[in-house]
Specification:
alpha/beta, hydro-lyase activity, ILV_EDD_N, 32 helices, 3 domains, 45% helix, IlvD/EDD_N, Glucose Oxidase, domain 1, ILV_EDD_C, 13 strands, lyase
Amino acid sequence: MSSPANLPNTPIIIDEKANPYRDCIQGLANQPITVVRLLRDAVNENPVVGRDRGFVVPEIKDVVGRLVENRPRIAIIGGAPDHPAHLLDRPQALMAAIRIWEMGGVPFLFHVPVICDGTAQNNIGQSYSLASRNHTAAAVNITFEGHSYHAAYVIAGCDKSPAAVVAGLAAADHARAWRGDQAPVWAVFAPSHVLKGGEIPDGTRRLLDRIAADADAAGHDDLGADIRENMRYILQCTSDEAFAGLLERARLLGIIDAAQERKVLDELATATCDSKGGICAFNGTGNSSRTMLAAFGLTPPELELLTDVPPFEAVAAGVDALFGVFNKPEYAIGNLLKANFANFVRIHNATGSSSNMLLHLPFMMRYAGFDISIDDYQDVRTQTPVPEIFAHSLTENRDTFVLAQQMAEGKNRGMESIYRVLADLGVAMDLDAPTVLGKSWAERIADLENPVDLSLGDASVIRATPVRQRSGVDVLTGSFFENCAVKTSGMSDHLLSHFDDHVFIVRYYENEHVCNADFASPDLISRLIETDGVDEDLISAIVQRNGGNRVDMDAPKDMLEQGHLSFAFVIGGQGPEAYGMPEMFSPSQNLRHHRILEASSMLITDGRYSGVTKGACIGHMVPEAFTGGAVGYLKDGDVLRLDLTRLTLDWLEPEAFKKGQERASDPREIADRKPLFDERFKRMADRQCDIAASNVLDAIGNAARGIVPRAVDRRATKSWR
């Protein structure tokens, strides 16, 4: 059989002073064994590819020879098979191994743990979720440096995992630049395939219709409307979580019993996922991370949006991209991060992506040695207005799976189309920035005259004409904290307008479980006006300040529906040092799918939110309660003012507010609040015993700086500009 085409005529030798495999006989004796076994598995498990390539498994002496010559040592990094995004990793990894050897390199394979945020949702697992990111970054860095690899082919999965791998590789790149005796680190990323959403089974749909009708008949038409609204969504784990909250409300109202509740939830879970798994198709943190990797120029188009195991040609394109940039430091991972930082900020906003990226972006950049915080993010965000060009919808069949299909059909070119659209709209994209293909963005999009096939019309996920002019994530400042994040793209135009210069009454919770129980309570609406510290004078002042003129203490539902009576549900003590910074996903889903509360109220936390969060949800508050942040000093009946034009959130002195005076201040200045905080601090410290000691996020920077270990924080001194 003839040799496959497109193979290098001359083998690439990495240009560096150090070669641990030449200079360390133990490594030279140990590691070749793993290479031979990897390539033997590649042929045995995919004999068709092996046969078509005429591939012969090398002998140990062949591997030794390449290691001594300092051929490219490439680590294939996969995820754990207990995460649904990584079910198809192995065949791709084995194809990559074959191509690496064909191109003259030496392939290795290791895996990293991946915590599924869906599995960890609303239980103690969420306290381990963000911690897993830091541990994975350390594991990648340790393995990469410990075995002296040159490059990585990364099969990147969900949530925090892609950022963690980027950080681990970037840290090695930063250290090697400091030492000066090794080549930099190159990497190419192949995001995991996309999960196809499910459909509500007909029988389950009829049952839900009946529950909604029974809710209407019982006088709870708001619940009936909420159930029907959620039935419009493509079945994903996010909609499952919303149904869980809605059905709990129905059970507590006596509309269904526990057995019916369980039956519906089990039927929904069964119908949600196909057996191939993948990254969930909503535009949450998983797909925001996919967007991030592509925006930083780390992903070849052939691997950007997969729905199945990629063909060998696509895998080869990723491997070949690496071989095209070897011995070219300008394409090392640290340089790609620096050059594309501002590009990604703008793309993140234009695509309305996850607020969690405000944690992961400074995290990655600081591991790479750059002194970056969310202040830099906001600086870039405010330089040039960025419109929303992503019409992503789980109710109108425009999820990421559909986007992948549109790209496969040639209707768009994924990230290249996004760069083209934004540049054409006048957004200040740096098209000279390099990518892993060895080309700038300008070179990649030079021939892209029509970035989106206009024949798709409203079915297109990427839009050449903006969906709206305001999108993204904003950074708020205020009188009682340094900064926090609000996902503007998750708020409707109505909410953005209605909540601009709006005041709220605080209802405080010390953990998300108490908040969830309150949201599920059938009498919450009537109980809100009975909150401690709330009286008719305060409600009257709030309603009038928010544009209302009717105060009826016997009709709180009416005041809430009109949006004049508003509450801020504050969940404190959820920060990284306190409790691992879990997602407040369930409270946010319960708020979003409670029509009356969504129209009138907001959530505030020093924790974080799911990437798919919708509604008025403010998180990442710095400093967190556990470190003395004023969010831990708030109490029921406090008054907060939100100004989305000026991007401020202020605490107003309650008694002064009742008299028509708005004095922004800090509750920490009130002496009698200190005992309240001290009591809460003790309970926060006691609650930490829920978490295994090794997984408490300790000795870290705050959320504005990516929650990196302090040793990493200290070394982040380079400018990205």
